[in-house]
User: Fold this.
Amino acid sequence: MKIGSFDLNTDGTFIIAELSANHGGKIEIAKETIKAAKEIGADAIKLQTYTADTLTLNCDKDDFIIKGGTLWDDRKLYDLYKEAYLPWEWHQELFDYAREIGIDIFSSPFDKTAVDFLEQFNPSAYKIASFEITDYELIRYTASKGRPIIISTGIASIDEIQDAVDICRSEGNNDIVLLKCTSAYPAALEDANLMTIANLAETFGVISGFSDHTLGTTAPVVATTLGAKVIEKHFILDKSIGGADAEFSLDKHEFAEMIQAVRDTEKLLGKIDYSMTEKKKKSRQFSRSLYVAEDIKEGDLITEKNVRSVRPGYGLHPKYLKDVMGKKAVVDLEKGISSKMEMFK
Assistant:
């Protein structure tokens, strides 16, 4: 499965820098963020395409006031989304700019009109946000466009995840990525449950990854060791920009550290490999082998005293020690000579 030119099966971990609300209401900041994401090695920048009116109602009733111990408690949903949204008129310039500098770009649509709007930009993928996984018609419509679809599973039951996957497949779309996600901002480490990442892939027959809202860079590294093929995390140029998502976003320095840590982790994981590489063969010089441990005269009996298993590894393999014990030397042997089988009979 590919997202743009990135092959999720062979190219490692696909790292997405989530722009979200971290644009400070200025297109120049959005473009600088895209540039920074490219410079530090992110594979993609992701936008969010909505308006306050496509997400919620402009209503003062209690249901529409945020509560529950979030960063945004007591704010009206409509006001938060109005502040955070990325103007739709910016999209053309941002898509063009990202492609000009060579970083992939796509977005999360939050309703059908957003999907229709984004189609003109030929995005490499679509992302369904965690709170939208229960919007089956949005998933159906998005999947019908035939592009890879990445779905965060944060608030979903296992049955709802299965429903989302089935809906995509019913539209003939099998390019599905499920992201383990804890929909808390920020998310506590003990709620991450990263062991679910591999289980998502196994249970639903898809590629799995991780959408991270924890603080710091530890969780993406651990997720990589557990098989995450996609990592998504909020990215901000500088936290002084402020905004709805600043507190749980990584700045340029932090995000760069995370990318490097993930790439180092990929190198460490490598592949299952028992082959005798040239490096391994060279290192065998420091292994043990059989050496003449003291001067031996022709005809002398070989004992554990005069032939021993020691470093370095240029002599007979130590497994032959029992085979040579009790034999006799066929020639005079000097201490420090590496052993060969023809020395004994």
